[in-house]
Amino acid sequence: MISKSLFGNRLKEKRKFLGLTQAQAAEKAGIERETWGKYERGVFMPSGDVLLSFLNMGIDVSSLFAAEQEIRPSENSEISKEEIELLGYYRQASDNGKFVILSVAKGAEKKAQTALGKVSNG
Q1: pTM, 2 dp
Q2: CA dist., res. 110 & res. 106, Å (int)
Q3: How many CA atoms lie within 13 A of 64 on its CB side?
Q4: Per-residue pLDDT for 75 more than 60?
Q5: Structural domain of residue 14, as residue ranges?
């Protein structure tokens, strides 16, 4: 079981990803803003009915409860903190979220290759 504070942090990330304020998210979930804030702060956990409303809002509820998987680079790797953070977000993302992350990364790579090609041909 994950901690209430980890659940709250994940819920906050999902809300921000959806571009919602606490008040907007609470309204969509059919709860009070203060209650939403208590979920995010880890004061208490939502009931099953509220979790269903999260699901209807587009929140991947299973990712809120996923076991914490700390990512640790091996001794010989040169993985940066940013790469570890990105991998953490990727692992927590829904299938649609993973698709978006990969699409953005592939698009950035293509733009970089195009820019490098123009410089070397210039």
Answers
A1: 0.56
A2: 6
A3: 23
A4: no
A5: 4-65
Tell me, what DSSP letter sits at residue 39? H
12 and 41 assigned to the same domain: yes
Question: In sequence order, what are the residues at sequence separation of 6 or more whose Cβ sits closer than 8 angstroms to the Cβ of residue 40?
Answer: 8, 9, 11, 12, 15, 22
Residue 94 sits in the same domain as residue 43: no
SS3 annotation, 48-92: HHHHHHHHHHCCCHHHHHCCCCCCCCCCCCCCCHHHHHHHHHHHH
CATH number, domain containing residue 18: 1.10.260.40
pLDDT the model gives residue 89: 78
Closest CA to 61 of 50, 73, 70, 71: 50
Find out whether 40 and 11 touch, Cβ atoms under 8 Å: yes
To 5 degrees, how large is the angle CA 10–CA 19–CA 12?
Answer: 20
